[in-house]
Structures are given as structure tokens and as C-alpha cells.
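Project standup — Tuesday

K.O.: blocked on the structure for the chain from last sprint. Re-posting the sequence here as requested.
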Amino acid sequence: MTSARTGVGILVEREAELSAMADRFEEALAGRGQLVLVSGPVGSGKTALLQAFADHEVGSRARVLRAVGSRAERTLSLGVVGQLFRHADLSPEGKERVSRLLDDGAFSSMINDGDGETGGEVSAHVLQGLCLAMLQLAEQRPLVVALDDVHYIDGASLQWLSYLVRRLRQARVLVVCNEATRLVPVHPAFHAELLHEPRTTRIRLGPLSRTGVQQVLAPSPRTAATRTLAADCHRITGGNPALLRGLIADSTGDRGAAPGHLVVGAGFAQALVICLYRCEFTLLKVARALAVLDEPASMPLLGRLADVEPELAQRAVEALNAGGFLDDGQFRHPAARAAVLDGMVPEERAAMHLRAARLLNSDAAPAVVVARHLLLADFVEDPWIPPVLHEAADHALAIGDVNAAISFLRLAHQIGGDEAQRAVSEAALARAEWRLNPQRTARHLTDLAGYVRAGHLTGRDALSVVDWLLWFGRVDKAVALLDVIGRNADRLDAEATEGLNLSRLWTACAYPGAGRTHDCPATGPATTRLQAGYLLVEVLTSGPTARCVAEAEQILHGSRLDERTIGPIGVALAALVYGDRLGMAAQRCDALLHEAEGRRAPTWHAVLAALRAEIALRQGDLRVAEDYARAALAVIPPKAWGVAIGAPLSTLLRACTAMGRYDDAVTHLRMPVPDALFQTPIGLHYLQARGRYFRTTGRHSAALADFQTIGELMTAWEAEIPAFVPWWGEAAETHLALGRPREAHDLIVEQLRRLQPGHVRTRAISLRILAATGDPRRTELLQRAVTALQSCGDRLELAYALTDLSQAQQDEGNLGQARVTRRRARDLAKMCGAFLGGLDPAADPLGTAPPAPPTPVEETVSELSDAERRVAVLAAQGHTNRQISDKLYVTVSTVEQHLTRVYRKLNINSRADLPLRLTSDVVGWPPGA
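H.V.: unblocked you, prediction finished:
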């Protein structure tokens, strides 16, 4: 912003007023005394107008006598008259005479029943003497009597002024009175008398227009930038010159402000507060009430809060609008409201917020509006307050404003009430804090468990405590509380009974060694939440059957993310993962992650990120899996995870191990985990990941110990499901590393025997391991494994299977085909970020093989059409026919026809023989690359 001249806005849009005052001055010089009454809102430039008139119109042509009325000096009798004569050029005798008259006038005002505000009647000889002294001065030299803030003039001075005005007919005197616009005139009789006088001229000032503001900022030239700047200044100040000066001071005095950039700072705030304090007290009270409410309000409500009549509140708002302080009853800028609030004593501000809360509550305002005032109010223990705060917290949680909900519930808990009310408030607070960080909830568990035992928490609140205890591994306390709740099961309503049954299911599934499945109801589920509970039981005891997958899809399709559905949603996603529906699981999980982020629920986001990491890991996307797992641990701290820490840690361990980053894996292994982790199914995944690290780094005995521990736990839990944790295969690979093919063969055969037909991915991995045990069907088994892995989308396991297949082809003397298969394995591993060579990079047969000459297959790739090449690229990367049809927007039948022609042109038998590095002239192809 350009620097403005001193006296911003003095002459802008005031030419007509100055001209009128100059005309009256000429009349006075001719011996026809005049009175000019200038009125306008505080800060509209009345004093500046008077100063400009004195400087530019009066000059040396007359003597100017000035006085200013003051709110603090309204009881000082003849104080304003004394100011005028103090600046008059009186002789010593005149000064002595005026001084005696002022003393006599003050005395007579005091003894004539003065009320301490306006003063009593002044004796006539005093008024006459003082008036004569002023007129005698005018005979020597024309006078301009300038009175600022006449609305604050003392009563005795007002009597003298009325006396003087009636005697101006043939005097060379111009009286100029400035006053602020008032809701109720302070001196109605005086106004009536003055306005009746024919020598009185009334001038009304208002705020500057947008054009006027632009003239102040930049008289010329008027560019688009200055017009925009002027519009912004006018929007913030309403054209009030005093506020405009403060805004300009902020913007030109701030060294960090760019040219033409507005800064609304201390100068603007100070100007606003000064103006409001100069207004009559009603305007200040209404402005404070508006600042406290911070939203549109009815005049009855505003009046009650400001302690004025509604009609007067309406007029006050209109006056504040006219002065540029408000725009349609609202502050023009947040800094304006903040300045008004800062100008209040903290105790006064808190008391007004409490009063606003009570008034709004009695008017049935939304609970969240009332609650915001209660947060800023004086602490009070009214019984109506906690229910309002709870209702407001529920609303805040529904829209994702978790921090606001926590603030409301903390206040409800502080207010307390009886022990039952404190228990409910603390439970609600713990539930809200869970969304942000479960570690905060842990601080409440001891108190909450006591409330459950005492019977102060029942139903949902009591069962939530059980869930939180399970999360943090306090399974014994959780089971004990379930017993307490179950003893009163006959008193529970339908919803609480469902919750009790669900908690029993969760406990049995989360801690199979401690939970008691016989306590769970045997009938079918009545709701989505119970359906998810039964689904989890079935996955852990029978495996992810086709029916499980269908139910999981149904749960995900019909559930919106909230605190009651996050558990069922997690179970459904896990069922899809274990059922090898990775593409569907990834798509749904991505949508839920976006929703959790929008709902501002870090805990939900962390849980979903951990699931997404597992999905990516099973798809062979090691880097993506690592990113999601790290994100999960970053969203909420590790200590907040409880036993669930095993989920993201397991993914990180397996990903880093597969990528050959063993130092990183060690770092993750050193992260502390609770002992209770190994009582949970999540602990099995952690043991599997740790065992893989041990096996890969040559610590085979430690690896076998972890895998055998998994087997023992799954046997004890009656959950020997290979699709859940295929420990038989893990142990078999370890035995193979130790040179024990017979033991490996027995284990992997047992795993295959336990698999159900739908477990495609685990079956394919098992076939690869079986081939490595020396089975005579080695090549056939590996080809079947490759085909199956291509259909389920796990690129990393596909790379492992292709690596073994290339070795089998080489051992059979099929060297050309072995090279093609080896390159495909190497390229897939590179895409996954995997390292296939174990501890020694030189041991990687794929990395050390010299570049091979083009094979007949590669030479004929150029014969493929664009459409055939696109299908072949996606098929070589492991996409199913259905996935290819979705990506290319063609039918499955068309994909099959293209693949048939590709096989014929490349002289290969199946997609397992497709070269991965198919060329394409299409920029950005393949999609998602």
C-alpha cells in the first residue's frame, strides 16, 4: 500500500461540507452571527473537518477559540466555557472579571439543586457577563467558537451556549458544534432550540464511499490494482476514516508487507476500540454482545445479552452499521471482533459467555452453539450443562470435529455432577480421544473399569471399556468385566444384549486362549456388527470360505465408516485379504482411507493403513506396503497401538526382508511389543515375519522355533487354517534351507491337505515349495503355481515361482525358455522392489547371467498388433482376464481372443511363457506404470 499523507481523508468527500461552513463564516464576518451543528458517527472525521476549516478557510481572518467536551468532565460546571476563555486574548482586567464570573457560576450551579451530571441553573448575571465578554472579543476581531464533542458538554456551559446563540444576530461570531450521532439525544431541549434558530446550519457526516477510500489511498492514477485495494479497504473499514487510518498505518508500517498488501493489525484494532469507547455506552454494550455471540441473533436475544431493550438494540445495530463498524449487523473482519473481545476484562467476557449460553439454551439453540459459549464461560455446576455438552460432542464427532468434541466432554467431566454422571462423561471423553490417539484413552481405563464394577457404566459404555482393555492386552481384566456385565444380562435392552454378544465374540477371536466361544450366542446374526463377529469366528476356525468372502462384500457395501462400524469393516477387509480378493480389498480400503482422512480420525486411518499395507504386501508391492505400514505407525504413535502394533510391524519386517534391507528389519525387530501380542492372531503374523527374517539371514533354528510356535498356538486355538498363517510351508522352506527335503515334503503335503479349493494363492505357494522338495513333477508343479499366481495377482510370489521354474527349465536343458522365464522373474522382482539373491548379491542367478541374444519369441513381438500388445503386457504382469478387460474397457471374450492370437504368434503355450518386456509405442503405457 502506498504511504498516505498526514490527515488521511481530511478533505476527501468533504468539499460540500467545507463550502457550507465557509458560506456561514462569510455571513458571520458581515456581522450576522451563525451556528453550524456538525453530527456524524464516531470516527467519521468531524474533528478533522473542523481543523481543515480552521486551517484553510479561517486562517488569520478570525480568532479561533476551541474547547472539547469530555465524558470525565461533565460534572465540572462551566468547564467548557473556561476552556474557551483560557485561549482568549483578554486584558488582565478582563481575565480577572471572567475568572470571578466562572467561580460565581460554578457556585450557583452547585447550590441550585445540581444533579452531579448536568449541573443546576447558573445565575443570569453570570451568563450575561460571560456572554458579554465573548461578544466584546468579537468586536475587536471576528470569532470562531469551535466546540468538539458537544454531547459531553457540562450543563452550565450548555446554558451559556444557548444564551450566546440567542445573541448572535449582529455579532461577528461563528459557532461550530461537533457531536456524535446518538441513539437518544443528550440535550433534547438544547437541540430543539438550536434547530429552531434561523441562523443554524446542520451538517451530517457519514463514512467515505469506495471512491473516497480510493482517493485517500492513491489520488492518481486510478489503476485496477488501486481499485481492488480500495474495495478491500472499504470492505474492512466501512469507509470510517478513523478505521481507515489504522488500517493504513498497519499496512505501511509492517516491513514484511508487500506493496499493495493489506495488513489488519494493532493499528486497526486500536482505532476500533477507541471509537467504540467514544460511542455512547449502549453501542459499546451491543458491540460486545455481538462479539460474544459471533453469529446473527434476534434483537430480543441481543437485547437481553446486552441488557437493553430490543428496540434500542435494533437502533444500536443500525448506528453501528451507519458508522462502518458493522455490515448488516456483523463485524466486517475477524480482527474487529477480536479487538472488541480483547477490550473486555476477562471476567466480564467469561460472564457474558455464560449468560449467552443460558439465553441460547432457553431459546432452544443448537447444543453445539451453546457448548462453545460454555467453554469460554465462568465455571459453573448447573445440572443442565453436561447433557448439552454431550449432545454438542455427538454433533462434533458426526462432522469430524474431534478436537471440539473432546473440549466439550472435558468440560462435562470437570463439571461432574454425581458419580454416575462423571462416569458417563469420562467414558464419552475416552471414546472421543480414541479417535485421535488410543494412548489417551489408556489413562482412563482404571477409573472406567471401576465405574463398570460399581454399576455406573452399563451397555455401550461398559462394553467399550472391554474393547479398550483388549486392545492394550489387559485380557484378564476385560474377561472379568464381561463377567460383571453378563451377570446383569437379563436387565439389558436389545441393543445392549447385542453389544454383549459381540464383545464376547471379539474376545474369543482376539484372544483365542482366553476368550470363551461357548459364551457366544449360537443363533444367526441379527445385525451387521454381529454378522462381522460371526464372520471373524468363521475365518479363524474354518478359513476364508466363499461364503465368508460374500458376507465380507455385503458388510463393506452396506457400512459407512464410524466408530461402531470400524471393527466390522476391518474384519470384512481381512476376510477379503485371506480369501485372496486382493484387488477388491485394495479398492475398498483406498476409499475408506480417504473417508477416514476426511472424518479426521487418525486411529481409524492408522488401522486401515495397516490393512492396506498387508494387501500391498500380498500383491507383491513391497515399497507400497512399506509406505502404508510406516504411515500407519506415523499417524498414531507406536505406544498407542497396543497389541495391534503387530500388524504394521509384521508388514514392515516382511517387506524389508524381501527387499534385502536387513538393517532396517533389525530396527523394526527392536521395537518393543507387548507380551499379550503373542496371545492374539496378530501375534502369529509377527512370528511369521520374524521367522522369515531369521531364515533369510541364516538363523534357521530361530526361524523353526517361531514357525513351530505358530503351529502350537494354532493347534491350541483349534484354528489350523493355512490360508490364515501357512506355517507348514514356512517351516518346510526352512528345512529345505537346512538340507532336509523329507521333513519339508511332509510339512508341505500336510499344508496342501488342509487347504480348501478357493485358497488359490496359498495353494500356488505350496506347489512351489513342494516342487523344491525333489518331487518328480517339479516343472509341472511350478507351471501350475505360476498360472495360479498370475490369476491372484501376487507378483512377488510369481517372481519366486518363475525363478524356480527357470532353474527347472535349465536343468531340463531348455536353455532358451529358461532365459525368457528368468528375465520375467527378474523384471517382476524389480517391479516389486525385491532382492532374490539372499545374503550374497553375487548368488543371484538372474543378476549375474550375461545378456542373452534375442530369442525367437522376442523377435516376433513386433508382429503383435497394438491391441494384442496391450493385452499381452498386462497378462505378462500378472493381471487376470477380468482385470485386463476392466483396464482396457473390452469384454473378457475379446481379451481371450487376443491372448490366443498372441500365443500363436509368439509360439508359446500359456501366459507363463509371455516375455515381460513387451514394447509399446503408446506413451504412458501400460496404465498405472
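K.O.: great, moving the ticket to review. Strands lie at 34-40, 63-68, 143-148, 173-180, 200-204, 326-327, 330-331. The chain has a mean pLDDT of 86.
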